[in-house]
Amino acid sequence: MSADIVAWLVQDGITNGAIYALLALALLLVFAVTRVIFVPQGEYVTFAALSLSLLEAGRMPGTVWILVFGGLAAAAVEAAAALRARAFAALPRIGLLYLALPAAVALLVGWAAPRQPAQWVQVLLVLAMVVPMGPILYRVAYQPLASASVLVLFIVSMAVHYVLVGLSLVFFGGEGLRARPIAEAKFRLGVVEVTAQSLWVLAASVVLIFLLWLLFERSIYGKALRATAMNRVGARLVGIPTALTGYLSFTLASLIGAVSGILIAPITTLYYDTGFLIGLKGFVGAILGGMASYPLAAVGAVAVGLLEAFSSFWASTYKETIVFAVLIPVLIWLSLRSRHVEEEEERE
Amino acid sequence: MNRTFTALLAAAALGATAAHAQVTVGVTLGATGPGASLGIHYKNAFQLMPNTLGGQPVKFIILEDGSDATNAGKNARKLITEDKVDVVMGSNGVPSSLQIAQVAFETKTPYLCLTPISLPPERYHWTFIVPQPTELMMGAVAEHMKANGVKTVGFIGFSDAWGDLMYKATEHWAASHGYKVVTNERYARADTSVTGQVLKILAANPDAVVVGGSGTGGALPHVALVERGYKGRIYHNHGTVNREFIKVGGKNVEGAIAPTGPLMVPEDLPDSHPSKAVSLDFTRRYEQAFGAGSRNAFGGYSHDAVRILGAAIPEAVKKAKPGTPEFRAALRDALENVKNVIGAHGVYNITPQNHNGQDERSRVLVQVRNGEWRLMK
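Output (structure tokens, whole complex):
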């Protein structure tokens, strides 16, 4: 195995690892704030990537229907709650947020899609379609059960995952799609040829991670998120609305997922169900980092990417086996080290 | 929707005495799940099937198995025991089809298999394989490689039963066609990168590469090989030949070579080709119903299975009434002796020794030229 092969594999591993790192951060964020193991995180990737490919082909992605009907469901839940509380003043806000906004996005996409706008417009449209899925999912599926146990929330996640994968098959069909790269240029870096697209992936990941850091360290919302993550009851006692932090974490997660999808769409062929596996590898990364610290999760995810690249060179048949088998020793070590944390979780 | 459909049909069957003369065909397919990209096409073709076969009214009961082998087996059992079907067809995927073959064997029901599977010789009794054997298809690739002086072949395929089948078929012809398979790399359809595998192939530097993927999944290694500067020929297999493959691969897959059935390029076939008329008719009707360029090999397998059945029914109804075990046995005997059935995928001459019955007329080599699959002359 020569040095240039190592260099190639490292480049490949870091590019994939950067995507896994983004997803690992999103999973960790959602888990820390809402205790939801967010299995459908990968579906954002699929929806964003495939919507982008369809927009490029001048077709309207079915993603808008999730937005419209999800918005309807969320509006119904909200309106029922508002009527029960006789808070009629809230109704216009609900209508605007859950009905008018998704409808506006749907109309905009329907109008723009056949006109095949510039790529950056397409990217914005995809973000407008996918990011609102986060808060809508939270409102419909998770908020009514916000205080349920981790296991119940996990089962809800599985249900949401299956619903989204099924819809994805209906909207995008069984065959794979691939988007045009944002930049086609290639650079020589020693022996390795680096594509501009993989630099985009790296740059976007680093910027996103930096922005998340800023959010957590500098803004009141980020501090609210951190407080909720540390102690839900305590956060509520000092006046932090935990529903709001739930919305915020789900919105961030869908934003991160959508960005990952847009970045990865030109690199590989994506299928309606590919996102699950990508999300799962992000999850492995988060667990490698102990499911507690953001920097460790990012490091763990990059490690997963590198492990994947090297095992696909040495023993491609066992690649998945190697990547997921790493979980076992890590989980054993984690369970030996921090058993009491889970017990607290149960009592809550 | 399928369940209501089945329930309605079952109700109709109970209510009407005329159902006795009717031949019932049970189909299980996976238009959802990991095999959906193939299953949808198989299923589409059943919308174009005739109401009578061999002079008998025929009824199709189509169940969904979600590309899951256990479900496929359950569906087959349900079709046979509850719906009393005379023959089963399905499914898209080797594991599912193996399950159905097992059920067909136990229940003594003729089974027209829509996936190329291989069974132990004694298990072929009730099972007939409609698609071309992978060895037959990859034989065309082997001949092309021999004619072009290929001595070393790199293989990269799916890490599933399909990849194994393609690897075996490529190995099968190695000695007789004077080449050596130097790599056996695997990847998954959902993989985001095949850099590692491609680097290994480049390190081995083979004269040609065979890709054992299917559909758009075949594009990923091809694109990666071209992007890394591989200059040799890249061969695919009959699972890859569809329009989406070219859409995904773009300019990078220009020049890709693959074997396929005649129905992918009926317009390019010489008039002397026996399948030309049938293939043309089927692709026309299929594209009318499902859009221009939607033609695919999988719908053709459904089509040919029904044609083979149509050729066997007249013999079988002479001996017994549909819906009885005697009819199923008679149908099996008749299926084993159908001669010169012209399908969209070539000509079928089934014998007790060969439960597929296809020959070289059922394969052509196609190449991607200017973003279209074209017949290689």
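The longest strand of chain B covers residues 56-64.
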